[in-house]
Every structure is written in C-alpha cells, then in structure tokens.
Amino acid sequence: MISLDALASFFRRKQSALVGVDISSSSVKLVELGRNADGQWVLEHCGIERLEPGWVSDGNIEKFDEVAEALRRLVKKTGTKTKNAALALPASSVITRRIVLPAGLSEQELEVQVESEANQYIPFSLDEVSLDFCVIGPNPQSPGDVDVLIAASRKDKVQDRQGLAEAAGLKPVIMDIESYASRRAAERLIQELPDGGRNLIVALFEIGAYTTSMQVIRNDDVLYERDQAFGGAQLTQQLVRQYGFTPEEAENKKRNGDLPEDYATTVLRPFVDTLAQEISRALQFFFTSTPHNRVDYVMLGGGSAALAGLADAVTQQTSFATTVIDPFQDMELGSGVSEGKLRREAPSYLTACGLAMRRFLS
Q1: How far apart are CA 54 and CA 39, in angstroms?
Q2: Which residue numbers delimit the SHS2 domain (predicted)?
C-alpha cells in the first residue's frame, strides 16, 4: 500500500505550531507564523544561515553534517521553541500528475486506485517512493468524477531532509514542494492586486543563487513553469573577477554592502541589466509556448530580487509592471524580529514563508 505517513504529506494540513524550513543551495531559512486575536498574520520568528558553495547542489545534500550544523545554529539563533517542521523538495525531485477518479470512493479505495495509476507514471518501484495524493474537486468535464493530484518522490530524497531536521532537533511532519510553497506565499499578495487578483496573469520569479524559477499563475492555475540557470552567484563571480576578492570575501562584501566606490556602475548595473534580459527571455519562452502574449504583473522573489534597480530594469525590458515581493507584507512582527534587517532580506524568505503557512491550511 501507499505510504501516507507524515513525511509523504505533500498535501496534508497541520494546525499545531510549525516552522517552515527552506534548504537552498546558498542558505537555510526558517520562518514561524502565527495569528493574533484579530486573525492578522504574525511573524513570530525568522532567520537565515548561509551555506558554503557545494554543500547543497541541485537540491541534493552533499555535505550533510555541515548543513545539519547550520540548521542547528539557525534554530538556536531564531529563538523558536517549536519542534514541528515543514520542509520542501525541489520540483525537479517530485513527480506530480493530475488524474481523474470516480467520486465517492473511500480513502482506502482512493489509495488503491492511486497506487494503480501511479505505476504508469513513476519510472521506479513504488517501494522506493514516498507518495501522496489529494482530491482537488469535481472534474468539470466529467460529472461524477473528481480530479486527484498525485505527488511522488524517491524516499532517499525525503529521508535526507528528514535527517537534517532531526539532526537539528526538529520533528519533520510535512514534506512540501518548493514551487508550491513559494506560490502559496505569493497568492496572499496577489489577492491584494486590483479586483483581488482575479483573472490576472502573474509571472512569479524566484531568483536563487544558481537557478531562477518561473511560475505563471492565473487564479488557482499554473499556466507555465520553467527553471533557468542564472542567479545571484554570477554577481559574486563578477566581483571576484573585477576586484580579485576570494569567493568568500566577495559573498561577505555583497551581503554587507562593503564594496568599492565604482561597484554600482562597473559591476552591479551590468549584472542587473543582464538579469532583466534573462527574465525577459523567460517571458518570451512563455509567450511562444502558450496562447498568451502578455502578463499583467511580474513579481520578483529570492535573494537577488532586491538588487537596486532590478524591478525598474525588468519593467524597462518587458513593459510589464514589476514589483519585488515581500512575503511578510502587512504582517505584525514578533518581538524577536528585527525589522530593518528583515526588510532587506524579505524576498529571500518566499518559500520558507509558504512552508510556514501550511500550519493554517483549511
């Protein structure tokens, strides 16, 4: 039978206190959310701990002990006492399929049907897989049937992240998908757009160290997804070439703003222009691959999203309104959260925030 334990719970809800932990190629991020008496979101804890290049590569944990120690430091630094954790796998590590099944099946009958269907889509034995599913709702074309979403990943991928959480004293109770988590955090802000964001086409870019992930969203549908191999690490490489820094020096100086006087014109501006061109090129792939020829908004998240001038450069390149996303917008800040530092780093927390929101899924 299908393993539907907590660590296969791509879709299950969790209402008890929960931290969202995002493990990327350049850092580990933690977010804990709550709600006040008025129902307003409260950012209770958050923090970020940098990772050395190569510790995590293409979503794979290459240096387990070092990443585990970084996560331990992060948990201590944030001051959270919560042990339950939601983590996520890269979309490239998860197979998702939407299938149609008869309505009215019991949970056990659904499991049997899903296992049978999953055999057709998963290129390895189900014994090697963590598998989950959720009923999305009635199938609009077939009365009496329902749409069911299946998600599956190799158990070793899940167990790597499980082990990291446990090594840091956390209890992993949810395994999500990174793109689902970032979209969940963005949807709250899309609802603040005109008409509540209804029927608007929004291109969401999450700019990581090595990869930029793009999702084009309309209402609850993902129209298009694409990853491209560019990101903030290329700016670090340019600093190394331009000024002779070591990679570690360049990364530290980039974070601290301790850079030569000509940095803005010699290095930053050309990089921002190149990044804007890459985003424009990604949008062109969307237009040539779908019936659409425009988007209503571009939203930028990830560590490099807040680079000075990037949003304006994207608007200039594409003609589309562009904003840098702040997943903590309109949230009340807990006493342990430093607002000044938070606002500078906020775009980095998009996925971690979406993971923390799993606590309140209905």
Answers
A1: 41
A2: 18-186
